[in-house]
């Protein structure tokens, strides 16, 4: 990757000289992430302040004299499957036959209609708690303090504080100076699933309801009150039981707290410490307050909603709406499920640079745990060995159907495999590679390889090919194999398998994967524009929300502007074409994703521009709402279903502007907008196990520090625009790069030559 053999050695700086540098070099934000202030009324659930601990979730909102707490629990799922999905003809073989015969109606009836017309399977809402104050005790403001994972609200002269305890499955509510009445509201939407009304009860200071669901699942919401001379504390939980068991006894027991500890004592022992540690992982200081708030919201969501330590306690990785399932009297949009044709992958795109490896492991360990289910699905639906993850699935990993072109596209599994690869490259952990990443990805590779067949030229092609979600679910959506979406994912998977096997010293396996890679065709390019197409004969000719055809640019990074001139032109032409087709049919995540793409092409100002436009697709609390909320006509989508992937793509766009580490090279401020003259970050992670900190002032990089977790050879693209920096240890300059070997735990610092005491 180093393109010059020119070698220059920078002088070693003495400790005394290093101490003369202006400092401290890292200047953290004085108060951490800012609070999210919501002036009353907060009349919608999806405008509420979010709290969660990986198992329980809560949204705090309200108006007039009522405070509402919408409840959620990660494992509340109706896993029943429509009868159609159980038919023996519900297979890939049937899909191939119907496509070949042009039988569109039967395709829809078999693969689409069950998802659209049968309410289950679905994520289940948990219900709601309502606190009603006196008629004159009106709502003032609801505030989320992300540094403490705590919501405060003012109602007249009363102060309300709410936490979802980080280490105990309780929603704890403290009301000072008043004792509002409490009402539990069971979820009305479950009536669509044929459930009986919830059973309501009370005893002493406890109130509850128990909702029977399907397949022996029942869940209970219990609230126990603890009044005192200064107000009242409420302990609230959502408990679940299966196999026909009663969830109420355990849930009631959990709400029996020690009143002598009080809200403050319990929060101190079971809550605040988690959030204090969470915010120490890394930080970014941006000159744009709105984008800073979006970035910090993403950091908060990873801590609140994705906890690997809670997987055995009823926790789960983030689905479409995380732990904040819709509370509008119905069921969640898109069933609140796991969409693996973009949503899960981009929801988990930003955790790594932030240093939240455990948040990412929540999803990766979950996928590992579903290996037996994915193996059965590969065999029963596709007729192959290995594993295939459904493109749209339940918590238990069951395929739900939907638009068959995408919900049952096998290459979605390769995108999931990319997350395993990225985790390995970022952490450099051989143990993870050997025990987790390579086994899972190689099983995915075996399944996809079994589906591929050679054409007359010996090149491997899939029997069916699509590109999410172009042409919706029409027959036009079946594209000439292989689409650029499929092709890029296949190249990425087999290339990463080659690299993984090589890193493990398995040369024969590496050669096998490399041979497969050599039998794949190049990406298809439109000869008229020089841009990537959706597939042969299908150019990107209309505005569309999903840039599936450009996966090779981002996030896969198979082609880039630093490669050969032909690659640079291909990237530029593709981005120009996407922009030229306009944003009429983009959703919020499209703007955030395109900001990532522009940053990867080193277009800092354009990246910032699209990131700023993304903000028009967010709500009062920062949640990504899919449609344009601004009324400015950025998109013809103006609806507001809440999903998380846009928030995380926006955070990743910030990373792409500040730090990139693909291709074995660390790049500091590679696409920072000219409008961000002053920006700083601390302890962002780069591929290879590097922790990177840097400061930029007046549009110039002033200081860079890189610490090694794993040890190894660091290649740093010159962040000082050719100026010779002062270094804390000898480094070599090779062309545009600085090269040095660091031991585990060792740190390198570089200062711009203009830095003076």
Task: Write a concise synopsis of the structure shown.
With 757 residues, the chain is of the alpha+beta class. 31% of the residues lie in helices and 22% in strands. Mean pLDDT is 95; it is low at 1-24.
Would you write up a description of this structure?
This protein is of the alpha+beta class and 757 residues long. Among the domains are: 111 residues, Golgi alpha-mannosidase II (Immunoglobulin-like), CATH 2.60.40; 180 residues, no CATH class; 129 residues, no CATH class. The protein contains 20 helices and 32 strands. A hairpin with a 2-residue loop joins β16 and β17.
Seen as an oligomer or otherwise, the chain set is single chain
Strand order of the largest sheet: 2-9-10-11-12-17-16-15-14
Q: What is the SS-derived class?
A: alpha+beta
**What distance separates the N and C termini?**
36 Å
**Helix count, DSSP H or I runs of 4 or more residues:** 20
Shape: globular
Helix content: 25-40%
Uncertain runs with pLDDT below 50, 5 residues or more? 1-24
Mean pLDDT: 95
| Biggest sheet overview | 9 strands, antiparallel
Q: Approximately what portion of the residues adopt beta-strand conformation? A: 15-25%
Q: Mind telling me the C-alpha Rg? A: 27 Å
Number of strands: 32
């Amino acid at each position: 990757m180093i393109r010059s053999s020119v070698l220059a050695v920078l002088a070693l700086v003495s400790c005394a000289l290093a101490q003369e540098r202006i400092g401290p070099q890292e200047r953290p934000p004085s108060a951490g992430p800012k609070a999210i202030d919501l002036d009353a009324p907060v009349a919608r659930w999806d405008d509420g302040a979010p709290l969660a601990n990986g198992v329980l979730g809560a949204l705090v909102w309200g108006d007039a004299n009522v405070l509402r707490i919408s409840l959620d629990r990660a494992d509340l799922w109706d896993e029943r499957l429509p009868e159609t999905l159980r038919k023996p003809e519900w297979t890939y073989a049937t899909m191939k036959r119907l496509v070949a015969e042009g039988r569109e109606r039967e395709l829809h009836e078999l693969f689409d209609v069950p998802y659209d017309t049968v309410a289950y399977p679905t994520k289940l809402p948990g219900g709601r708690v309502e606190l009603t104050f006196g008629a004159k005790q009106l709502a003032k403001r609801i505030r989320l303090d992300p540094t403490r994972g705590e919501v405060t609200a003012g109602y007249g002269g009363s102060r309300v504080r709410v936490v979802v305890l980080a280490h105990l499955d309780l929603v704890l509510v403290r009301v000072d100076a008043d004792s509002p009445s409490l009402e539990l509201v069971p979820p009305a939407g479950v009536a669509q699933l044929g459930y009986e009304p919830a059973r309501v009860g009370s005893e002493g200071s406890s109130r509850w309801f128990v909702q029977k669901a399907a397949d022996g699942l029942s869940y209970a919401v219990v609230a126990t009150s603890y009044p005192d001379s200064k107000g009242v504390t409420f302990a609230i939980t959502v408990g679940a039981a299966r196999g026909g068991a009663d969830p109420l006894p355990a849930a009631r027991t959990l709400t029996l707290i020690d009143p002598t500890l009080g809200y403050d004592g319990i929060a101190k022992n079971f809550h605040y410490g988690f959030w204090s540690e969470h915010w120490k992982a890394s930080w970014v200081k941006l000159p744009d307050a709105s984008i800073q708030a979006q970035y910090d919201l993403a950091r908060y969501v990873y801590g609140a909603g994705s906890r690997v330590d809670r997987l055995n306690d009823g926790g789960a990785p983030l689905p479409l709406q995380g732990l904040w399932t819709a509370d509008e009297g119905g069921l969640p949009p898109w069933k609140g499920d796991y969409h693996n044709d973009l949503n899960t992958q981009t929801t988990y795109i930003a955790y790594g640079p932030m240093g939240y490896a455990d948040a990412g492991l929540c999803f990766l360990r979950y996928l590992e745990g579903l290996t037996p289910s994915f193996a059965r699905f590969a065999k029963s639906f596709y007729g192959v060995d290995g594993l295939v993850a459904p493109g749209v699935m339940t918590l238990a990993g069951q395929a739900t159907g939907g638009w068959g072109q995408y919900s049952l596209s096998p290459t979605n599994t390769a995108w999931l495999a990319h997350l395993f690869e990225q985790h390995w490259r970022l952490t450099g952990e051989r143990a993870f590679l050997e025990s987790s990443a390579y086994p899972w990805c190689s099983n995915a590779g075996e399944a996809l390889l079994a589906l591929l067949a050679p054409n007359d030229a010996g090149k491997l092609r899939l029997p069916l090919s699509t590109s999410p979600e172009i042409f919706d679910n029409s027959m036009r959506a079946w594209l000439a194999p292989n689409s650029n979406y499929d092709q890029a994912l296949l190249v990425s998977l087999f290339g990463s398998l080659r690299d993984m096997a090589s890193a493990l010293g398995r040369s024969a396996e590496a050669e096998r994967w490399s041979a497969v890679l050599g039998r794949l065709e190049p990406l298809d390019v439109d000869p008229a524009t020089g841009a990537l197409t959706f597939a042969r004969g299908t150019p990107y000719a209309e505005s569309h929300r999903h840039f599936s055809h450009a996966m090779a640019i981002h996030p896969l990074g198979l082609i880039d502007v630093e490669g050969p001139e032909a690659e640079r032109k291909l990237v530029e032409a593709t981005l120009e074409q996407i922009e030229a087709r306009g944003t009429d049919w983009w959703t919020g995540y499209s703007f955030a994703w395109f900001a990532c793409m522009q940053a990867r092409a080193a277009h800092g100002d354009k990246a910032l521009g699209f990131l700023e436009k993304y903000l028009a697709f967010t709500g009062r609390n920062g949640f990504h709402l899919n449609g344009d909320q601004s009324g400015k006509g950025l998109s013809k989508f103006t609806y507001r279903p809440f999903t998380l992937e846009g928030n995380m793509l926006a955070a990743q766009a910030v990373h792409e502007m500040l730090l990139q580490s693909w291709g074995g090279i660390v790049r500091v401020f590679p696409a920072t907008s000219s409008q961000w003259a002053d920006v700083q970050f601390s302890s962002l992670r780069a591929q290879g196990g590097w922790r990177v900190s840097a400061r930029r002032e007046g549009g110039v990089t002033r200081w860079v520090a890189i610490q090694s977790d794993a040890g190894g050879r660091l290649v740093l693209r010159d962040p000082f625009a050719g100026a010779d920096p002062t270094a804390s240890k000898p480094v070599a300059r090779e062309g545009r790069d600085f090269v040095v070997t660091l031991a585990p735990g060792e740190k390198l610092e570089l200062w711009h030559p203009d830095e003076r005491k």
